[in-house]
Amino acid sequence: MLFTLMLVIFGLIMVFSASYYYSISQDGTAYSYLLRHGMWVIIGLGAMIFGAAFDYRRYKKLAIPVCILSVILLILVLTPLGQTTNGATRWLRLGPITIMPGEIAKLAAILFVAWFLSEDTNRIKSILRGILPLIGVAGVYGGLIIMQPNLSTAITVCGIIIAMMLVAGLKWRYVVTAGGVGIAGILSIVLFMKDSYWYTRLTSFTDPFADPLNEGYQAVQSLLALGSGGLFGVGLGKSVQKNLYLPEPQNDFILAIIGEELGFVGLLLLIVLYCLFIWRGTHVAINAPDQFGMLLASGIVLMVAIQVILNIAVVTSSMPPTGINLPFISYGGNALLIFMFSAGVLINISRHGPKNMGVN
Predict the structure, then answer these.
(1) Is residue 359 assigned to a domain?
(2) How would you classify this enzyme at the top EC level (predicted)?
Protein backbone atom coordinates (compact mmCIF):
# COMPACT_ATOMS: atom_id res chain seq x y z
CA MET A 1 0.00 0.00 0.00
CA LEU A 2 2.85 2.37 0.83
CA PHE A 3 4.55 1.92 -2.54
CA THR A 4 1.22 2.32 -4.35
CA LEU A 5 0.41 5.57 -2.55
CA MET A 6 3.92 6.89 -3.21
CA LEU A 7 3.55 6.20 -6.94
CA VAL A 8 0.06 7.72 -7.09
CA ILE A 9 1.05 10.91 -5.23
CA PHE A 10 4.15 11.30 -7.39
CA GLY A 11 1.95 10.78 -10.45
CA LEU A 12 -0.47 13.48 -9.30
CA ILE A 13 2.40 15.96 -8.97
CA MET A 14 3.88 15.08 -12.35
CA VAL A 15 0.51 15.14 -14.15
CA PHE A 16 0.04 18.70 -12.90
CA SER A 17 3.55 19.69 -13.96
CA ALA A 18 3.39 17.97 -17.36
CA SER A 19 -0.12 19.19 -18.26
CA TYR A 20 0.29 22.80 -17.08
CA TYR A 21 0.65 24.54 -20.44
CA TYR A 22 -1.37 21.99 -22.39
CA SER A 23 -4.23 22.52 -19.95
CA ILE A 24 -4.04 26.31 -20.37
CA SER A 25 -4.03 25.94 -24.15
CA GLN A 26 -6.97 23.53 -24.20
CA ASP A 27 -9.18 24.64 -21.29
CA GLY A 28 -7.98 28.12 -20.40
CA THR A 29 -6.93 27.05 -16.91
CA ALA A 30 -3.81 25.30 -15.63
CA TYR A 31 -5.73 23.06 -13.24
CA SER A 32 -8.19 21.10 -15.41
CA TYR A 33 -6.08 17.94 -15.72
CA LEU A 34 -4.97 18.16 -12.10
CA LEU A 35 -8.58 18.32 -10.89
CA ARG A 36 -9.76 15.48 -13.12
CA HIS A 37 -6.81 13.29 -12.21
CA GLY A 38 -7.28 14.15 -8.53
CA MET A 39 -10.91 13.04 -8.77
CA TRP A 40 -9.80 9.69 -10.23
CA VAL A 41 -7.20 9.31 -7.48
CA ILE A 42 -9.97 9.66 -4.88
CA ILE A 43 -12.16 7.14 -6.73
CA GLY A 44 -9.11 4.89 -7.09
CA LEU A 45 -8.51 5.00 -3.34
CA GLY A 46 -12.06 3.77 -2.85
CA ALA A 47 -11.45 1.00 -5.40
CA MET A 48 -8.21 0.02 -3.65
CA ILE A 49 -9.94 -0.12 -0.25
CA PHE A 50 -12.69 -2.28 -1.75
CA GLY A 51 -10.12 -4.57 -3.39
CA ALA A 52 -8.30 -4.92 -0.06
CA ALA A 53 -11.49 -5.70 1.88
CA PHE A 54 -13.32 -8.02 -0.57
CA ASP A 55 -12.26 -11.67 -0.34
CA TYR A 56 -10.32 -12.37 -3.55
CA ARG A 57 -11.57 -16.00 -3.66
CA ARG A 58 -15.05 -14.76 -4.59
CA TYR A 59 -13.68 -13.49 -7.92
CA LYS A 60 -13.60 -17.08 -9.17
CA LYS A 61 -17.33 -16.94 -9.87
CA LEU A 62 -16.86 -13.75 -11.89
CA ALA A 63 -14.05 -15.00 -14.13
CA ILE A 64 -16.17 -16.17 -17.08
CA PRO A 65 -18.80 -13.35 -16.96
CA VAL A 66 -16.08 -10.67 -16.73
CA CYS A 67 -14.16 -12.26 -19.61
CA ILE A 68 -17.28 -12.35 -21.82
CA LEU A 69 -18.19 -8.77 -20.87
CA SER A 70 -14.70 -7.51 -21.73
CA VAL A 71 -14.85 -9.18 -25.16
CA ILE A 72 -18.28 -7.63 -25.82
CA LEU A 73 -16.93 -4.19 -24.89
CA LEU A 74 -13.96 -4.66 -27.25
CA ILE A 75 -16.37 -5.55 -30.05
CA LEU A 76 -18.55 -2.51 -29.31
CA VAL A 77 -15.50 -0.27 -29.68
CA LEU A 78 -15.31 -1.33 -33.34
CA THR A 79 -18.94 -0.31 -33.95
CA PRO A 80 -20.27 3.26 -34.37
CA LEU A 81 -20.41 3.41 -30.55
CA GLY A 82 -16.61 3.63 -30.47
CA GLN A 83 -14.97 7.03 -30.06
CA THR A 84 -12.05 7.87 -32.36
CA THR A 85 -9.26 10.16 -31.19
CA ASN A 86 -5.99 10.80 -33.04
CA GLY A 87 -6.74 8.04 -35.55
CA ALA A 88 -7.40 5.32 -32.95
CA THR A 89 -10.77 3.97 -31.79
CA ARG A 90 -10.17 2.79 -28.22
CA TRP A 91 -12.99 4.31 -26.17
CA LEU A 92 -16.70 3.93 -25.47
CA ARG A 93 -18.48 7.06 -24.29
CA LEU A 94 -21.33 6.69 -21.82
CA GLY A 95 -22.53 10.23 -21.16
CA PRO A 96 -19.78 12.12 -19.34
CA ILE A 97 -17.81 8.90 -18.70
CA THR A 98 -15.37 7.34 -21.16
CA ILE A 99 -14.61 3.62 -20.88
CA MET A 100 -11.44 2.09 -22.33
CA PRO A 101 -12.21 -1.63 -22.84
CA GLY A 102 -8.54 -2.40 -23.49
CA GLU A 103 -7.75 -1.57 -19.85
CA ILE A 104 -10.62 -3.75 -18.61
CA ALA A 105 -9.38 -6.58 -20.84
CA LYS A 106 -6.08 -6.75 -18.91
CA LEU A 107 -7.75 -7.43 -15.58
CA ALA A 108 -10.35 -9.70 -17.19
CA ALA A 109 -7.60 -11.79 -18.79
CA ILE A 110 -5.74 -12.08 -15.46
CA LEU A 111 -8.88 -13.17 -13.65
CA PHE A 112 -9.85 -15.71 -16.31
CA VAL A 113 -6.39 -17.30 -16.61
CA ALA A 114 -6.03 -17.49 -12.81
CA TRP A 115 -9.41 -19.25 -12.55
CA PHE A 116 -8.84 -21.53 -15.56
CA LEU A 117 -5.44 -22.80 -14.43
CA SER A 118 -6.31 -23.07 -10.73
CA GLU A 119 -9.40 -25.22 -11.38
CA ASP A 120 -7.16 -27.99 -12.70
CA THR A 121 -3.41 -27.60 -12.19
CA ASN A 122 -2.73 -30.26 -14.84
CA ARG A 123 -4.35 -28.21 -17.60
CA ILE A 124 -1.12 -26.37 -18.33
CA LYS A 125 0.51 -29.72 -19.18
CA SER A 126 -2.10 -30.50 -21.83
CA ILE A 127 -2.06 -28.89 -25.26
CA LEU A 128 -5.74 -29.50 -25.94
CA ARG A 129 -7.18 -28.87 -22.47
CA GLY A 130 -4.94 -26.04 -21.34
CA ILE A 131 -2.52 -24.44 -23.79
CA LEU A 132 -4.69 -24.10 -26.91
CA PRO A 133 -7.74 -22.65 -25.09
CA LEU A 134 -5.56 -19.94 -23.51
CA ILE A 135 -3.79 -19.23 -26.81
CA GLY A 136 -7.28 -18.84 -28.27
CA VAL A 137 -8.23 -16.35 -25.55
CA ALA A 138 -5.02 -14.42 -26.18
CA GLY A 139 -5.75 -14.46 -29.92
CA VAL A 140 -9.27 -13.07 -29.44
CA TYR A 141 -8.09 -10.30 -27.12
CA GLY A 142 -5.04 -9.49 -29.23
CA GLY A 143 -6.96 -9.48 -32.51
CA LEU A 144 -9.76 -7.22 -31.25
CA ILE A 145 -7.33 -4.76 -29.64
CA ILE A 146 -5.02 -4.59 -32.68
CA MET A 147 -8.04 -3.65 -34.81
CA GLN A 148 -8.46 -0.41 -32.77
CA PRO A 149 -5.39 -0.16 -33.48
CA ASN A 150 -3.57 -0.48 -30.14
CA LEU A 151 -0.43 -2.58 -30.50
CA SER A 152 0.98 -1.93 -27.02
CA THR A 153 -2.19 -3.02 -25.18
CA ALA A 154 -2.40 -6.12 -27.37
CA ILE A 155 1.22 -6.96 -26.50
CA THR A 156 0.48 -6.35 -22.81
CA VAL A 157 -2.61 -8.58 -22.67
CA CYS A 158 -1.01 -11.42 -24.64
CA GLY A 159 2.22 -11.04 -22.65
CA ILE A 160 0.31 -11.29 -19.36
CA ILE A 161 -1.49 -14.47 -20.47
CA ILE A 162 1.70 -16.20 -21.69
CA ALA A 163 3.70 -15.12 -18.61
CA MET A 164 0.96 -16.44 -16.29
CA MET A 165 1.06 -19.73 -18.19
CA LEU A 166 4.82 -19.86 -17.53
CA VAL A 167 4.23 -19.22 -13.83
CA ALA A 168 1.74 -22.10 -13.82
CA GLY A 169 4.30 -24.48 -15.36
CA LEU A 170 4.23 -24.01 -19.16
CA LYS A 171 7.31 -25.48 -20.83
CA TRP A 172 9.66 -22.97 -22.42
CA ARG A 173 9.70 -24.76 -25.78
CA TYR A 174 6.14 -23.60 -26.43
CA VAL A 175 7.10 -19.99 -25.70
CA VAL A 176 10.12 -20.22 -28.02
CA THR A 177 7.89 -21.62 -30.76
CA ALA A 178 5.33 -18.84 -30.33
CA GLY A 179 8.14 -16.25 -30.30
CA GLY A 180 9.50 -17.68 -33.54
CA VAL A 181 6.09 -17.37 -35.19
CA GLY A 182 5.84 -13.75 -33.98
CA ILE A 183 9.30 -12.86 -35.30
CA ALA A 184 8.47 -14.50 -38.63
CA GLY A 185 5.31 -12.36 -38.82
CA ILE A 186 7.24 -9.15 -38.13
CA LEU A 187 9.90 -10.05 -40.71
CA SER A 188 7.23 -10.74 -43.32
CA ILE A 189 5.81 -7.24 -42.76
CA VAL A 190 9.26 -5.62 -42.91
CA LEU A 191 10.31 -7.51 -46.05
CA PHE A 192 7.11 -7.80 -48.09
CA MET A 193 4.67 -5.09 -46.89
CA LYS A 194 6.73 -1.91 -47.15
CA ASP A 195 3.77 0.23 -48.23
CA SER A 196 1.56 -0.83 -45.32
CA TYR A 197 0.57 1.02 -42.15
CA TRP A 198 2.20 -1.64 -39.98
CA TYR A 199 5.55 -1.35 -41.80
CA THR A 200 5.65 2.35 -40.97
CA ARG A 201 4.71 1.69 -37.33
CA LEU A 202 7.25 -1.09 -36.90
CA THR A 203 10.22 0.72 -38.43
CA SER A 204 9.78 4.43 -37.64
CA PHE A 205 11.38 4.06 -34.18
CA THR A 206 14.72 2.85 -35.61
CA ASP A 207 15.54 6.37 -36.82
CA PRO A 208 12.91 8.89 -35.65
CA PHE A 209 15.11 11.80 -36.80
CA ALA A 210 14.68 10.64 -40.41
CA ASP A 211 11.10 11.99 -40.29
CA PRO A 212 11.13 14.38 -37.31
CA LEU A 213 7.95 16.26 -38.29
CA ASN A 214 5.72 13.27 -39.01
CA GLU A 215 6.14 9.63 -37.88
CA GLY A 216 9.17 10.37 -35.73
CA TYR A 217 7.82 13.54 -34.10
CA GLN A 218 6.81 12.15 -30.69
CA ALA A 219 9.95 10.05 -30.35
CA VAL A 220 12.18 12.99 -31.29
CA GLN A 221 10.53 15.32 -28.76
CA SER A 222 10.75 12.60 -26.11
CA LEU A 223 14.46 12.04 -26.73
CA LEU A 224 15.09 15.79 -26.66
CA ALA A 225 13.36 15.97 -23.27
CA LEU A 226 15.37 13.08 -21.84
CA GLY A 227 18.61 14.49 -23.22
CA SER A 228 17.89 17.97 -21.83
CA GLY A 229 17.34 16.55 -18.35
CA GLY A 230 20.86 15.24 -18.00
CA LEU A 231 21.86 13.83 -14.62
CA PHE A 232 19.79 15.97 -12.22
CA GLY A 233 17.17 17.57 -14.50
CA VAL A 234 16.23 21.17 -15.21
CA GLY A 235 14.02 21.36 -12.10
CA LEU A 236 10.43 20.44 -11.24
CA GLY A 237 8.00 22.45 -13.37
CA LYS A 238 10.73 23.81 -15.68
CA SER A 239 10.36 21.45 -18.63
CA VAL A 240 10.60 23.02 -22.08
CA GLN A 241 9.17 20.11 -24.07
CA LYS A 242 5.82 20.27 -22.25
CA ASN A 243 5.32 23.78 -23.71
CA LEU A 244 3.22 22.30 -26.55
CA TYR A 245 6.19 20.55 -28.20
CA LEU A 246 5.54 17.04 -26.90
CA PRO A 247 1.87 16.13 -27.64
CA GLU A 248 -0.21 15.46 -24.50
CA PRO A 249 2.84 15.08 -22.22
CA GLN A 250 0.70 14.06 -19.23
CA ASN A 251 -0.25 10.77 -20.88
CA ASP A 252 1.95 8.08 -22.44
CA PHE A 253 5.11 10.23 -22.59
CA ILE A 254 5.03 11.59 -19.05
CA LEU A 255 8.25 9.67 -18.35
CA ALA A 256 10.05 12.00 -20.78
CA ILE A 257 8.91 15.03 -18.76
CA ILE A 258 10.00 13.32 -15.54
CA GLY A 259 13.40 12.71 -17.11
CA GLU A 260 13.67 16.32 -18.27
CA GLU A 261 12.64 17.87 -14.96
CA LEU A 262 14.21 15.40 -12.50
CA GLY A 263 16.99 13.97 -14.64
CA PHE A 264 18.49 10.50 -14.72
CA VAL A 265 18.58 10.40 -10.92
CA GLY A 266 14.83 11.06 -10.72
CA LEU A 267 14.10 8.34 -13.29
CA LEU A 268 16.35 5.91 -11.45
CA LEU A 269 14.55 6.52 -8.16
CA LEU A 270 11.19 6.01 -9.89
CA ILE A 271 12.38 2.71 -11.39
CA VAL A 272 13.62 1.62 -7.95
CA LEU A 273 10.16 2.36 -6.54
CA TYR A 274 8.58 0.21 -9.26
CA CYS A 275 11.05 -2.57 -8.48
CA LEU A 276 10.08 -2.42 -4.81
CA PHE A 277 6.39 -2.66 -5.74
CA ILE A 278 7.10 -5.64 -8.01
CA TRP A 279 9.27 -7.30 -5.35
CA ARG A 280 6.56 -7.02 -2.69
CA GLY A 281 3.92 -8.17 -5.16
CA THR A 282 6.06 -11.20 -6.02
CA HIS A 283 6.39 -11.89 -2.30
CA VAL A 284 2.59 -11.84 -2.02
CA ALA A 285 2.28 -14.28 -4.95
CA ILE A 286 4.86 -16.70 -3.50
CA ASN A 287 3.11 -16.73 -0.12
CA ALA A 288 -0.47 -16.87 -1.44
CA PRO A 289 -2.57 -19.51 0.33
CA ASP A 290 -3.83 -21.17 -2.86
CA GLN A 291 -3.15 -21.57 -6.59
CA PHE A 292 -5.80 -19.04 -7.58
CA GLY A 293 -4.34 -16.38 -5.28
CA MET A 294 -0.82 -17.10 -6.54
CA LEU A 295 -1.82 -16.76 -10.19
CA LEU A 296 -4.00 -13.71 -9.55
CA ALA A 297 -1.18 -11.91 -7.71
CA SER A 298 1.33 -12.98 -10.37
CA GLY A 299 -0.88 -11.59 -13.13
CA ILE A 300 -1.22 -8.23 -11.40
CA VAL A 301 2.54 -7.96 -10.85
CA LEU A 302 3.20 -8.98 -14.45
CA MET A 303 0.73 -6.37 -15.72
CA VAL A 304 2.59 -3.60 -13.88
CA ALA A 305 6.04 -4.90 -14.87
CA ILE A 306 5.20 -5.34 -18.55
CA GLN A 307 3.65 -1.88 -18.83
CA VAL A 308 6.60 -0.20 -17.12
CA ILE A 309 9.02 -1.95 -19.49
CA LEU A 310 6.96 -1.13 -22.59
CA ASN A 311 6.47 2.51 -21.58
CA ILE A 312 10.21 2.98 -21.01
CA ALA A 313 10.89 1.31 -24.37
CA VAL A 314 8.46 3.61 -26.20
CA VAL A 315 9.70 6.80 -24.52
CA THR A 316 13.34 5.95 -25.27
CA SER A 317 12.48 4.99 -28.89
CA SER A 318 13.47 1.37 -28.28
CA MET A 319 10.22 0.08 -29.79
CA PRO A 320 7.52 1.47 -32.09
CA PRO A 321 5.66 4.47 -30.60
CA THR A 322 2.23 3.39 -29.42
CA GLY A 323 -0.10 4.30 -26.61
CA ILE A 324 0.95 2.67 -23.34
CA ASN A 325 0.52 4.48 -20.04
CA LEU A 326 2.94 4.45 -17.13
CA PRO A 327 1.27 2.55 -14.23
CA PHE A 328 -0.04 4.79 -11.40
CA ILE A 329 1.65 7.84 -12.99
CA SER A 330 0.12 8.71 -16.37
CA TYR A 331 -3.08 10.74 -16.65
CA GLY A 332 -6.12 8.58 -17.33
CA GLY A 333 -8.96 7.46 -15.10
CA ASN A 334 -9.57 3.98 -16.53
CA ALA A 335 -5.98 2.82 -16.15
CA LEU A 336 -5.50 4.41 -12.73
CA LEU A 337 -8.70 2.82 -11.43
CA ILE A 338 -7.66 -0.63 -12.70
CA PHE A 339 -4.16 -0.38 -11.22
CA MET A 340 -5.30 0.90 -7.82
CA PHE A 341 -8.03 -1.74 -7.57
CA SER A 342 -5.44 -4.38 -8.52
CA ALA A 343 -3.11 -3.12 -5.79
CA GLY A 344 -6.01 -3.56 -3.34
CA VAL A 345 -6.47 -7.15 -4.53
CA LEU A 346 -2.77 -7.79 -3.85
CA ILE A 347 -3.25 -6.48 -0.32
CA ASN A 348 -6.26 -8.74 0.15
CA ILE A 349 -4.30 -11.80 -1.00
CA SER A 350 -1.51 -10.89 1.42
CA ARG A 351 -3.99 -10.69 4.29
CA HIS A 352 -4.96 -14.32 3.71
CA GLY A 353 -1.34 -15.48 3.63
CA PRO A 354 1.07 -16.24 6.48
CA LYS A 355 0.97 -13.67 9.27
CA ASN A 356 4.73 -13.05 9.03
CA MET A 357 4.53 -11.72 5.47
CA GLY A 358 4.46 -8.11 6.65
CA VAL A 359 2.45 -6.86 3.68
CA ASN A 360 -0.66 -4.96 4.80
Answers:
(1) no
(2) transferase
Domain assignment present for residue 181? The answer is yes
Give the CA dihedral 45, 256, 248, 156, nearest 10 degrees.
Answer: -60
Residue 238, domain extent: 2-354
Contact indicator for 51, 350 with CB cutoff of 8 Å: no
- Region 73-86: mean pLDDT is 81
Planar angle of CA 73, 108, 90, nearest 5 degrees: 35
What is the value of pTM for the model shown?
0.89
Q: Is it the case that residue 356 has pLDDT exceeding 50? A: no
In a domain, 33, yes or no: yes
pLDDT in tens, 290-305: 999 999 999 999 999 9
- Residue 359 is predicted with a pLDDT of 42
Neighbours of 36 (CB within 10 A): 17
Cα separation, 210 vs 216, whole angstroms:
7
**Number of structural domains, the chain?**
1
Residue 360: inside a domain: no
Mean pLDDT calculated for residue range 18-47: 91
Contact 99, 125 (CB under 8 A): no
* Structure confidence by residue, pLDDT tens digits, 132-175: 999 999 999 988 988 887 888 888 999 999 999 999 988 877 77
**pLDDT over 90 (residue 16):** yes
- Residue 19 burial (CB < 10 Å; 0-12/13-18/19+)? buried
Q: How far does Cα 282 stand from its chain's mean position?
A: 18
| Sign of the alpha-carbon torsion through 328, 331, 335, 336 | positive
CA 203 to CA 145: how far, in whole Å?
Answer: 20
- How far, rounded to the nearest angstrom, does the alpha carbon of residue 216 sit from its chain's CA centroid? 22
Task: For residue 204, give the DSSP letter.
Answer: G
Q: How many helices (H) and strands (E) does the chain have?
A: 12, 3
Indicate the SS3 state at residue 97.
strand
